[in-house]
Design a protein that fits this description.
Elements: E1 7-13, E2 18-21, E3 27-40, E4 46-58, H1 59-68, E5 74-87, E6 93-106, E7 125-128
Parallel strand pairs: 4-6
Antiparallel strand pairs: 1-3, 1-5, 2-3, 3-4, 5-6, 6-7
Length: 143
């Protein structure tokens, strides 16, 4: 009867964001973040495993992500999972699951020190996605 599609991640950007515009002029930014799982195995040895998450941000949030995020920055991303299907150039069917960002918090300042993120001296910047914009159609995605 009920359903929930909610993702919360804290991780570091693995590459600089890539900003594009749809045919209708909407901004979409894509980037990936890495999260780490650390544990001690049965032999007492420390183990670590990284997971990589593809993230897309639309409209104003996408513009802000493209402007203020860069490789290595620690961020909190809140959003939902979305799976897309497409046909590759070689004709093969492809599928990907990504996080559609709805909120983003910068947890570490951009390289270069104070004043390089909105708010100047703040270590935490909260940027919610605007809810008053039109829904994005899958055919508008430029990749």
């Amino acid at each position: 009867m009920y359903s929930l599609n909610k993702v919360m991640l804290i991780g570091n950007l693995t590459r600089d964001p890539e900003v594009r515009n749809t045919n209708s002029g909407q901004t979409v930014t894509s980037f990936s973040i890495a999260t780490n799982l650390n544990w001690t195995d049965q032999n007492g040895q420390q183990q670590s495993k990284a997971e990589f998450h593809n993230v897309i941000a639309w409209r104003k949030l996408g513009e802000i992500c493209g402007q203020y995020l860069s490789k290595g920055i620690k961020v909190y991303i809140e959003g939902r999972l979305q799976t897309r299907d497409w046909t590759a150039q070689d004709g093969s069917k492809r599928k990907t699951t990504e996080v559609v960002a709805e909120n983003m918090i910068i947890l570490s300042p951009k390289a270069g020190g104070q004043g390089s993120v909105p708010g100047g001296n703040n270590d935490e910047i909260i940027i919610p996605e605007s809810e008053d914009e039109d829904e994005i159609k899958i055919e508008d995605i430029p990749f």
